[in-house]
Design a protein that fits this description.
GMP Synthetase, Chain A, domain 3, binds adenosine-5'-diphosphate, Rossmann fold, 2 domains, alpha/beta, about 35% helix, 11 helices, 8-stranded mixed β-sheet, globular, single chain, 3-stranded mixed β-sheet
Length: about 350
């Protein structure tokens, strides 16, 4: 009996739509004594979590005693109405992913431009402190931001988008971001709240990848209309996207849907579709979590090529399959938000 089997047994048990296995902070099997420390997603769930754990493990003979504790210092989830609104912004859409490299920033940029093409006023905020790539993707690298008379940051404008990136504040692209904890949060908070966005219908927020403190703190303190989750169909990406999904659920940020990136490749010679990373896997994940797939974006070398040149693919090649997918996602998303 390995700890993995115990975790597996807790995978099918849910409390408030969260799998117990995903709440485990620490787990140890010492002899036949099992010790589990859970992260408590919400006060008042302690007893239910305990009872469901006992039930799930009662038929495992190797486990004789179970000691359950809850991690201390779990941030309390503030009710949605105490979260701060970003001034001038009607709808804030956070774009998150379980891991890096799945195309989160590419989706953020093209989604923002696609919303713009629908006639909305749109801003894009790059909060990916570990690798701010929006300035490159929009060809505004090296831009400096200025402040207005009220000391508010003035976003840079490109293609009609209002853009702000943490990258604008770094002296050079080789400078690693070494802000930690409070300083980092201060910079990010300033980024959101001390900005003269003007009037925006949508602000797209490109979050850092994963489910660290930055994402959690932002999700808890900023009023978000909802989150869009980007994933590719690979195992590694899908494993992590479950964590991202749970994080948004825990802090009561509605998940607006999933974008499947690099879903397939269209052979330029034959026009045939190849599902390089497997077919139907993101759909399976979305069904299991009751999430809507907003769209599937093909893998296309033009995406990387135009991105490197600082022109989003929806502008450079508006007729391509990729661009059509982005425009479809923007339409679906805006309609879904405005219907709410
Ligand atoms: P993330 O923000 O998740 O780290 P990026 O948006 O920076 O990911 O994308 C990672 C790399 O993959 C970039 O080189 C980007 O150009 C490329 N890429 C993203 N989406 C696609 C796609 N649909 N087809 C081809 N290349 C893509």
């Amino acid at each position: 009996m390995a700890v993995k089997d115990i975790v597996d047994a807790l995978r099918d048990v849910t409390v408030n739509n969260m799998r117990l296995s995903e709440l485990i902070k620490d787990i140890k099997l010492i002899g036949s004594n099992l010790e589990i420390v859970y992260r408590l997603p919400q006060k008042g769930l302690e007893e239910e979590i305990k009872q469901k754990t006992y039930q799930a493990l009662e038929n495992i003979p190797e486990v004789k005693t179970i000691n359950i504790r809850f991690a201390e210092g779990v941030p309390e989830v503030p009710p949605a109405f105490t979260r701060r609104h970003v001034e001038g912004v009607k709808h804030l859409i956070a774009v998150g992913s379980g891991k890096g490299g799945v195309g989160k920033s590419t989706v953020s940029v093209n989604l923002a431009v696609a919303l713009l093409k629908q006639g909305y006023r749109v801003g894009l905020l790059d909060a990916d402190i570990y690798g701010p790539s929006i300035p490159t993707l929009l060809g505004v690298k090296g831009e400096r931001v200025h402040v207005d008379e009220k000391n508010k940051l003035i976003p840079v404008e490109k293609y009609g988008l209002k853009v702000l990136s943490i990258g604008f504040l770094l002296p050079s692209e080789d400078t690693p971001v070494i802000w930690r904890g409070p300083m980092l949060m201060k910079a990010l908070t300033q980024f959101l709240f001390d900005v003269n966005w003007g009037e925006l219908d949508f602000l797209v927020l490109d979050l850092p990848p994963g489910t660290g403190d930055v994402q959690l703190t932002l999700a808890q303190n900023v009023h978000m209309t909802g989150a869009v989750i980007v994933t590719t169909p690979q195992d590694v990406a899908l494993a992590d996207v479950r964590k991202a999904t749970s994080m948004f659920k825990e802090v009561n940020v509605p998940i607006l849907g999933v974008v499947e990136n690099m879903a397939y490749f269209i052979c330029p010679d034959s026009g045939k579709k190849y599902y390089v990373f497997g077919k139907g896997r993101v759909l399976e994940f979305a069904r299991a979590y009751e999430l809507q797939i907003l769209g599937s974006i093909p893998m296309d070398p033009e995406v990387a090529e135009t991105s490197d040149k600082g022109v989003p693919v929806v502008i450079a090649h508006p007729e391509s399959e990729v661009s059509k997918a982005f425009l479809g996602i923007a339409k679906l998303l805006s309609e879904k938000i405005l219907r709410r």
